[in-house]
Amino acid sequence: MADGDAKTRERSRERFGQGFLTDTWYFAALSSDLKPGKLARYEILDEPVLLGRARSGEIFALRDICPHRAAPLSAGRVVEDTVECPYHGWRFRTDGACAAIPSLTADQAMEVSRIRVRRYPAVESQGLVFIWVGGDARSEPDHPAPTFPGVVGGAPKLVDRMVFESHIDHAVVGLMDPAHGPYVHQQWWWRSAKSQHEKAKRFEPREAGFAMVRHEPSKNSRAYAILGGQPLTEITFRLPGLRWEHVTVGKRQVLSLTCLTPIDARRTRITQIIWSDHPAFSVLKPFIAMGARAFLRQDARMVDLQNEGLRYDPALIWIDDADRQAKWYQQLKREWVASRREGRPFRNPVEPAVLKWRS
What we know:
The chain is of the alpha+beta class. The protein has helices spanning 2-17, 168-176, 181-184, 280-283, 285-310, 324-342; strands spanning 24-30, 39-44, 47-53, 59-63, 77-79, 82-84, 91-93, 98-100, 122-125, 128-133, 158-164, 198-206, 209-215, 232-238, 242-249, 252-264, 267-276, 353-358. Strand 15 (242-249) and strand 16 form a beta hairpin.
């Protein structure tokens, strides 16, 4: 066990060295992705993770490496609510404890339950699956998984996924950046580089993050026009990588949630999910989906271009107010790490502010 503890601590140091936060919830999958009796392999924070749903309906997450000969457990099968390794048939319960080693004979006494694979606490909420990645493999969640306003209208109206070839820090900063729209997202139905206005938005701290408080969308943001009425929007960011926009039009709602999950130090999985009970999403769903996918891919192309410069490790110049959200993100991360290291409550460093920029 001592060797295992040392390896756990070393992996924790490696994650911090890569700029990943631990002791927090990461989005892993949609509930609908996990079918009873099926196993799926993911890579999260440079670790292989098996996600599954037992035939009883329980979801679970395990390190996707058999401790016997390192075969991926996800290549095996579910047998009586255990995971059976495809190599030698070793079985593991959903809590990570070994349940059986078929090669043992009757006279070979061995306490197999002492053999374990790492279990990641997993929860299912609002049709989403989150896993807790602790700095120590033995740590348990000390705060609940996030929940979101505006999960309405039944199943999501749109789900789009892709991988950004970047560290999560650059992916987060790129998606929250308020000034790139007229240059990266130029469509007739959105805005052009010639359509730029001065903006002044009010921000305030929120749980493990901050929000651009509810306001009327900018006049040059044409896409909101399809909702009719008088839409109001609020945009929120929360560590480690969740950004959502909640739009209300009278009693109708739209929620656009972007989940950023690090695969490793060079790749970030982006999952875009939209819910709504607004009739526009029934009538215009194909056009809305096309626009949302175009936005995400335009951001991805800009990430690829940015990588051309980042490979030379240049110093970056961030300015107020357009880059204040990026600065807040880095401050939030530093405070998260410090609070965990010092064993104290997290203190949000974001102060209420009105930020101004032109876009």
